[in-house]
Amino acid sequence: MSARRRRRRRARRAGVTVAAAVAVLLAGIVAVVVTLNRTHPGPPAAERCVARLDGTAWALSPDQAQNAALIAATGVQRGLPARAVTIALATALQESKLVNVTHGDRDSLGLFQQRPSQGWGTPEQVQDPVYATGRFYDGLVTIEGYENLPVTEAAQAVQRSGFPDAYAQHETRSRAWASALTGWSPAAVTCDLHDPDPAIASADAVVARLQRDLGPLPVVADATGVLVVNTTALGTDADRVRLDWAVAQWAVSVAQPLQLTSVAVADRTWDRTGGTWATGEPLAPGSVRLTVAS
């Protein structure tokens, strides 16, 4: 055998040996990573809520979702059309990203960046999401034919923004959330949330938030402690199924701050563990069941 062939054979053996060593090293690294993941798990996945419309999921953070729920519930309580809620949500997304901020351009504050110097209210008032939402709708309903205006024109007529065309970019996301939160799109809102904290859960807090956002709806606790919301005081019987879904999807959207673990309406139940709606035993129209962490 020539010296050249012997050198090639030795090189091949060396290559095999190196490859084997690398494989062993990689296997060891993988084992270490797996062990570390088991003993030191990484942070949980980010919480988020989505509204689905026409096959697309439009995500919000839990904080944004609870503010969207308030804005929509206020519209529902006032008997306003879903279009009004779409306009309000698009406005808040543009002005504050649906976060109740304590700062803004000049003296602008809150969800809608309303300016006390322009007559919107005191700084404390415009930072109150309930007050701010009500003031926005007060202005919107004075705009003749607002339901048929483009979102950007309707929003601008109320806000008088320096960037009037910016509202349009939020229309589709806002329409998805408005359709779900006003009950026109059943089982469209879902939330993926971390485990609840029973230590801060409170049935009284749930009732207080419900009646703050949707009005004085009767709520009773059944034998198991589940809260049963009577929706029959909200709207007309002809709209009962839709309004039941409006209340239920409001509840899913506020499940994170209120520590809710499940929401049941009609023949569907949203469960915090899975984060989705599943078919269950039907409830009578006019009732929504809320389970608080315990």
Protein model, in words:
There is one protein chain. 46% of the residues lie in helices and 14% in strands. The protein has 294 residues and is α+β, with helices and mostly antiparallel strands. A hairpin with a 2-residue loop joins strand 6 and strand 7. Residues 18-22, 29-37 and 39-43 have low confidence and may be disordered.
| SS elements, strand count | 9
The pLDDT mean sits at 88
Q: How much of the residues is beta strand, in percent? A: 5-15%
Q: Could you estimate the helical fraction of the residues in percent?
A: 40-55%
Strand order of the largest sheet: 4-5-9-6-7-8
Number of helices: 10
Quaternary structure? single chain
Query: What is the terminal separation in angstroms?
Result: 81 Å
What form results from the Cα inertia axes? globular
Structural class: alpha+beta
Largest sheet: 6 strands, antiparallel
Order of helices and strands: HEEHHHHHHEHEEHHEEEE
Gyration radius, rounded: 27 Å
pLDDT < 50 runs, ≥5 residues: 18-22, 29-37, 39-43
In short:
With 294 residues, this protein is an alpha+beta fold. The protein contains ten helices and nine strands. The strands form two sheets. A six-stranded antiparallel beta sheet has the order 4-5-9-6-7-8. The protein has a three-stranded antiparallel beta sheet with strand order 2-1-3.
Q: What keyword list fits this structure?
A:
294 residues; alpha+beta; 3-stranded antiparallel sheet
